[in-house]
């Protein structure tokens, strides 16, 4: 039996899985607390040892992703807020980044100071279509060079000046990686090259810089930021399913929504969006989560008029208690019911924002009517009784008052075995195993 070890080092828990590479079978899985306070390799080793106990997988390859230490913090600097800066933001989200700052136009001294204050791990520098305006991109690259900028930069703007500006930045000591333009022409969004460059920078510069481990082994093991691995898994699943799908991942601090839609030929017409359509997209709602961000869920739900009369008063206290004690685990039916309600509200608000287009930067929103599969992820859903998880996902599928067209005929499933990240990690080197793994656990039945 040929197997691989797949692991996700999260902020709280490290999940490990042993996958049969011949038939895509999940052989075993386990988790252990992430040991950020000492060395994350300790928690990783514990999770892998628990998953691989008695299997004799000593020489099996490891595929690891990580969101420990806050994941990948990305800042975007663009030419115009509604075009290239927005395009850059959407590409950053698709690369698994937490977009912490967006600047547009010519950078001044105060703008550079604000950029520093955002503490990004990577800056995505974009601007101009190919053959179009190059002045703003040139100005901003020059400004960063003169500011003695040392945070890695991914340069993904007008290709006419790419080589010149790469040389300028590198000559000033700025770590720079060049990529193709994210917006080569109006209405065409091209994320692949920049996404790959961001991934490369994350692995080469960011993982080691977060000091999550004393040595270099952890940095060598990590192949992707966790959201990037999950999005790849979602893409593999969509290809296997042969249709549109949505994944909503309700976490302790954020709720992430991924969607894969079938390209619509109508998008190429005169009414197309200036920044183009991103058919495979991800959004991150930093104010919606089960623990650290639970108070944000209640506030957002109240603003969206999702709460029953008197419910807000109860949930405010419950959410505050969960934010104060992120390790809280409900021990009775009442506590589990509150968790379920917070999860349903977080999922509903997150999908509303994703579908309406505000979170994705799409003027006309994302049309999810043809979605055939809704996948729920996150510990609150994986560990809940199937009926409780169905209620959470059912709230999304019946959100007819949410200002977005709900899926007409979608089936809901939960990623109980946490295979999306594993499938994404295996996709490049073992695509058949990745596809079989996701089919077996999320499409069967």
Automatic annotation (TrEMBL):
InterPro entries: MutL. Pfam families: MutL. This is Uncharacterized protein (TIGR01319 family). It comes from Micromonospora olivasterospora.
């Amino acid at each position: 039996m040929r197997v691989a070890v797949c692991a996700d080092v999260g902020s709280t828990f490290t999940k490990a899985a042993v996958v049969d590479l011949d038939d895509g079978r999940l052989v075993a899985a386990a988790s252990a607390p992430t040991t950020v306070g000492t060395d994350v390799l300790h928690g990783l080793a514990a999770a892998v040892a628990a998953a691989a106990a008695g299997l004799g997988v000593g020489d099996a390859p490891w595929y690891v992703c990580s969101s420990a230490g806050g994941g990948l913090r990305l800042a975007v600097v663009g030419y115009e807020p509604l075009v290239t800066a927005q395009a850059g933001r959407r590409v950053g989200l698709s690369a698994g980044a937490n977009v912490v700052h967006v600047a547009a136009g010519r950078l001044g001294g105060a703008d550079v100071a604000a950029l520093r204050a955002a503490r990004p791990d990577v800056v995505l520098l974009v601007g101009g279509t190919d053959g179009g305006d190059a002045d703003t991109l040139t100005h901003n690259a020059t400004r960063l060079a003169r500011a003695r900028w040392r945070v890695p930069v991914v340069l993904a703007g007008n290709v006419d000046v790419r080589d010149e500006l790469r040389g300028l930045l590198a000559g000033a000591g700025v770590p720079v990686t060049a990529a193709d333009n994210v917006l080569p022409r109006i209405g065409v969004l091209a994320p692949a090259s920049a996404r790959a460059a961001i991934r490369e920078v994350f692995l080469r510069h960011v993982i080691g810089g977060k000091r999550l481990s004393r040595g270099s082994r952890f940095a060598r093991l990590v192949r992707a930021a966790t959201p990037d691995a999950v999005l790849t898994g979602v893409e593999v699943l969509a290809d296997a399913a042969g249709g549109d799908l949505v994944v909503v991942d309700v976490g302790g601090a954020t709720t992430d929504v991924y969607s894969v839609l079938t390209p619509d030929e109508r998008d190429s017409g005169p009414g197309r969006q200036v920044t183009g359509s991103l058919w495979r997209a991800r959004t991150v709602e930093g104010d919606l989560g089960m623990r650290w961000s639970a108070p944000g869920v209640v506030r957002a739900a109240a603003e969206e008029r999702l709460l029953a009369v008197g419910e807000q008063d109860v949930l405010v206290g419950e959410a505050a208690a969960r934010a104060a004690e992120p390790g809280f685990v409900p021990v009775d039916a009442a506590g589990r019911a509150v968790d379920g309600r917070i999860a349903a509200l977080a999922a509903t608000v997150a999908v509303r924002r994703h579908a309406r287009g505000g979170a994705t930067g799409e003027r006309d929103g994302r049309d999810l009517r043809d979605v055939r599969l809704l996948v729920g992820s996150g510990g609150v859903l994986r560990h809940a009784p199937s009926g409780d998880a169905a209620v959470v996902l059912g709230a999304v599928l019946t959100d007819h008052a949410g200002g977005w067209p709900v899926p007409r005929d979608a089936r809901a499933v939960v990623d109980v075995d946490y295979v999306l990240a594993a499938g994404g990690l295996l996709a490049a080197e073992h695509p058949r195993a990745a596809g079989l793994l996701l089919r077996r656990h999320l499409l069967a039945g």
